[in-house]
């Protein structure tokens, strides 16, 4: 079986070595040294060149290196008849949860505000509410959202979650669909976005969402830049409707020089580091899934390409 590592922005050889160590029976090739495209059975893909995955006529499964598959599915030539497996690794949840906790605590403890006061040389104390008096709203209750929600509950926050279809997470008030969105937003003082990027969620963090949140609330986006309407976010921050934002992801990455987010006093930027696929554990999960499938079992974590996750 030929597995092609097709991840031009990553260290393809490191993935190759790990795959071979875990399953020496595989033949692992690294893009662009593809050999005969007709021999490729399986692709391990991330940020592939547009049209590239359509070049393998006998491709039987695509594994995504990352949790979000929007980048692969946005390629109009992506072979949608081939099963696409997203990356589900508990380690992704561990890293994301740490990031969300750090960002939520930064807003909750008003470190963002004290940073601005420091720059103005001002010593101004304000008593903050207890975590149980602070409502954190999580958009997206998949693997990552649910893990962050449980950890925030553990710190005592009042946590609510919103997803397309209703989900149950212990201790978390859940809302779903368009019908539940306004009620969900109306109480969310710190809004955390961990949604998949789909046609339905693109631009969801825009003026109409911000207007429905409590005045002075905060935003954390660790999902995709395409969720945010950049100009609407700047306008909401400038008007005080939002008081602060932590952003890990951007429509164009790296965030272009001169983009207004770089210098906005109320925005903290991190360079898409909230959660990163860990090579050894992720490779082991891919090989395990592949082995079960080759033995006649079903592939786990297959994406519905129409739904987008
Ligand atoms: C990273 O952004 C991922 O989707 O895993």
Explained architecture:
With 309 residues, this protein is an alpha/beta fold. It has two domains: 2-89 and 277-294, NAD(P)-binding Rossmann-like Domain (Rossmann fold); 90-269, 3-Layer(aba) Sandwich (Rossmann fold), CATH 3.40.50.720. The protein is 33% helix and 17% strand. The chain has ten helices and twelve strands. It has helices spanning 12-22, 70-73, 90-108, 111-119, 143-154, 177-187, 207-212, 230-238, 260-263, 279-294; strands at 2-6, 27-30, 42-45, 61-64, 84-85, 135-139, 158-163, 173-176, 190-193, 217-221, 242-247, 267-269. Strands 8-7-6-9-10-11-12 form a seven-stranded parallel sheet, with helices on both faces. It is elongated. The model has no long low-confidence stretch (mean pLDDT 98). Glyoxylic acid binds next to loops.
> Any guess at the CATH architecture of the largest domain?
3-Layer(aba) Sandwich
CATH superfamily of the largest domain: NAD(P)-binding Rossmann-like Domain
> In percent, how helical is the residue content?
25-40%
Strand order of the largest sheet: 8-7-6-9-10-11-12
Q: What string gives the helices and strands in order?
A: EHEEEHEHHEHEEHEHEHEHEH
Total helices: the number is: 10
Q: Would you identify the regions where 5 or more consecutive residues have pLDDT less than 50?
A: none
What is the strand content?
Answer: 15-25%
Largest sheet: 7 strands, parallel
């Amino acid at each position: 079986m030929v597995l092609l590592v097709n991840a031009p922005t990553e260290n393809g050889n490191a993935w190759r070595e790990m795959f071979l160590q875990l399953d020496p029976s595989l033949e692992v090739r690294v893009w662009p040294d593809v050999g005969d495209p007709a021999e490729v059975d399986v692709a391990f893909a991330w940020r592939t060149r547009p049209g590239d995955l359509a070049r393998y006529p006998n491709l039987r499964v695509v594994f995504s290196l990352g949790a979000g598959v929007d980048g692969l599915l946005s390629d109009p030539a992506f072979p949608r008849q081939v099963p696409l497996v997203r990356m589900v690794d508990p380690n992704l949840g561990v890293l994301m949860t740490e990031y969300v906790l750090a960002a939520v605590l930064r807003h909750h403890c008003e470190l963002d505000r004290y940073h601005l006061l420091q720059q103005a040389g001002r010593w101004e104390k304000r008593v903050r509410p207890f975590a149980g008096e602070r409502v954190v709203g999580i958009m997206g209750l998949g693997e990552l959202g649910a893990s962050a929600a449980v950890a925030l509950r553990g710190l005592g926050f009042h946590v609510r979650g919103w997803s397309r279809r209703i989900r149950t997470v212990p201790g978390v008030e859940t809302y779903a669909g368009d019908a539940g969105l306004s009620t969900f937003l109306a109480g969310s003082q710190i809004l955390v976005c961990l949604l998949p990027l789909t046609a339905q969620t693109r631009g969801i963090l825009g003026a109409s969402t911000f207007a429905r949140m409590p005045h002075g609330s905060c935003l954390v986006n660790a999902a995709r830049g395409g969720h945010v309407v950049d100009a609407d976010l700047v306008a909401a921050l400038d008007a005080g409707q939002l008081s602060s934002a932590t952003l890990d992801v951007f429509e164009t990455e790296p965030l272009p020089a001169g983009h207004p987010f770089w210098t906005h006093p109320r925005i903290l930027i991190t360079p898409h580091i909230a959660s990163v696929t860990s090579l050894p554990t992720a490779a082991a999960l891919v090989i395990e899934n592949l082995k079960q499938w080759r033995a006649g079992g079903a592939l786990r974590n297959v994406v519905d390409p129409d739904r987008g996750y």
